[in-house]
Amino acid sequence: MSIRLSVRDGVATVTLDRPEKHNALDLADARELGRVWQRLRTDAAVRAAVVTGAGSRAFCTGIDRDAVADPDAVPQPHSPFAVEDPLLRIGPKSNDLWIPVLAAVEGMACGGAFYLLGEAEFLIATEESVFFDPHTTYGMVSAYEAMGMAQRMPFGEVARMALMGTAERISGRRAYETGLVSELAPPGGALEAALRCARVLAGYPPAAVQGTVRAVWAAREAARERAMAHAPSLIALGNLPPHRQTDLFHGRPRGAHSAPRIR
């Protein structure tokens, strides 16, 4: 299994450990990640958590495309009002976990990584980190990802990122300037910076911390839930068929730049 869990001083560290695949998640990893968050719900010794990716090249690049290349891998409902998405339950809040969860980002964070980032209390990254959303490039609707980021970034910034696809990437510095990232750490230092914050939170009275987490999320959830209710039909109506997505993923998309623009 490619999900590692360690606990020390009241802080759980959850590591996506497939660096050779840029920490992309296959279907088994996605299920295991959900189980990890559920396990932490009942562990009173864990009072905060950090999620990160192994290595320095990527935090996470979303779903492993090879894992879902077979149309039967994730059977879809025969309705534009429902969608079977294997990443919908990979986040802590989707598994009813309300200890604070921080994200430590090194390298790339893109696509389905935003399911995780959207459910973290705050993000710590490095200037070398890059954030982008490739969905539109490959004929896919950015729905859940864009909705999660729309609650963290100014409208114009998230719209630009979601629409520009692989043609443009947001640097760690720009992500910090727009509020997506709360702290910039030196190269290789994102995890330690996140653990430092998590240890502080783990030292506070747990009920007060978790109550504050719930309060902050209560302010967000009404708009988030209403938006997410529209996602299945938008995805079903706007996505290209899976084989066309795969063709674009493995080929050169028409109109794409030879190198992505980083800002």
Automatic annotation (TrEMBL):
The keyword Isomerase applies. This is Enoyl-CoA hydratase/isomerase family protein. GO terms for biological process: fatty acid beta-oxidation. Keywords: Isomerase. The keyword Isomerase applies. It comes from the Bacteria. GO terms for molecular function: isomerase activity. PANTHER family: ENOYL-COA HYDRATASE, MITOCHONDRIAL, ENOYL-COA HYDRATASE-RELATED.
